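Field: sequence (string)
Field: structure_tokens (string)

Example rows 1 and 2, in order.
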Amino acid sequence: MTAKTCILIGAPMDSGKRRQGCLMGPDAYRVAGIGPALADLGHDVVDIGNIAPDAAEAHPDLPDHLHEPAEMIGWTAALARAAEEALPRGLPIFLGGDHGLALGSVLGAANHAARQDRPLFVLWLDAHTDYHTPQSTESGNLHGAPLGYVTGRAGFHGFPKVAHPIPHENICLLGLRSVDPEEREAMQLTNVRYHDMRSIDETGIARPLTEFLADVQNANGMLHVSLDVDFLDPSFAPAVGTTVPGGATMREGHLAMEIICDSGLMTSLDLVELNPFLDDRGRTAQVMVDLAASALGRRVFDRPTQAFS
């Protein structure tokens, strides 16, 4: 694939949910070698370090049960700005941090795409739909609300304005297996594309992904990929606080990433919900680094086995 400038943006945020540990994620990716892995593929790698949230206050109209709303508003503003600054220079890779970072990364990508007069498409690789609003989430954890926010659902008082909501038909969710009833009811009223694990078991992961990417290409769209650790089965990716059995296998994960790479369409990437405190000797961080490498050009024949040499 064509060499890119990959811009690593650390977002050590843990405010999207109550279980702590994701703030260690960015450094875990670095220790697992994400920079050298991408450089070995011929990409220029620029690591801007970890960013910090803007100073912010919680809006009085937000529900009282929300977890850290002021910090979430601050992170959203800072991440959107970071995305808008990075996208003209290369392919930003957001090292999370919980999935609440996508409120900002997708918002910034949408703003940049609008300036380019191109549509933004979002590929959501996750066990959950993350389609809540501040009012609908029973837990108060806003890592379950990014898609609700960037599609323009109401109720995000005090958050940066979503000037360019993502059309639902421009979103594809793969790997679903844990969806709250309110989210299900609201999403089924839209034309968002969603594929749960039963659908993937029946038809495979390649067909729905390839069809979605064809639409991105036909629309001259930009593509934001948001990869949550819990997209994967916890048997080999345990370092996430929202484990749901029955996730994508290692083979399905790499196939999806290689198909994304083949398309040449990805313009930004989230790596989220890695909680190193829950990991087993760093193996989940390594899996996520390997998947990112597959999305950016690594192939099986680039990694010959040494077992019989």
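Row 2 begins here:
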Amino acid sequence: MVDLNAEMAELWASLGAPAAGRARVVQVVSARRGEGASTVARELAFFAARRAGRSVWLVDLDLLGSPQHEALRVEADRYGALGEAAAASPDGSMFFTVQPQARTPDGQPFPDARYLAAHRVGEARWWVTRFRREALRGRQAVHILPTGDYWTALRKYADLIVVDAPSPDRSQAALTTASFMDQTVMVVAADEADVRAPAQLRDAITGAGGHVAGLFVNRVTVEQPRFLKAFNP
């Protein structure tokens, strides 16, 4: 179990207050797999829901794996038991598409929104998404869409939306969604001496129209990380 409450309090403060009356969408990503971005995303959502009293959605862009749902299920004693599956789109919009499109038994197109479920986490006001991989048929594939419709719709129902994006060596999802995020927090392991990959990711996110809020140096429990420090390698 990783307890990052103190670190998350500092990260929360470092992100700054959102615009009045507007939900904030924060993407968390690392340049390389295994640097702890998913843990940071999950702990930020947990902190915001339990300590800051916010309504939070944790949206997992690793669709086929849905590791956030699995991590919360395994650590139910810490986070709270997961509730029954519910619709994850308030208006039918979605940030991905499944192709080729399937058909319902009556011949109607199977909506993309039906592939994504949301589960309430414990008693707090937060939800985690899970892609219904079991609903895929044959050679269907999932593609992240460069559209902001879903994020705009979800803002009406949450104070904070934390988006956990896979590292770019696994998926281009973070770059596809970057321009629709209010902030992107990059995570790097404290023992990582080569800053070229983070620098390249920073430039790619900026080039895609995103806003990099800063760098979270993941030191686990060795010492307090420095949050959102100036990133000028």
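free_text_note (row 2): Helices lie at 5-15, 37-50, 67-74, 76-79, 149-155, 173-177, 196-207.
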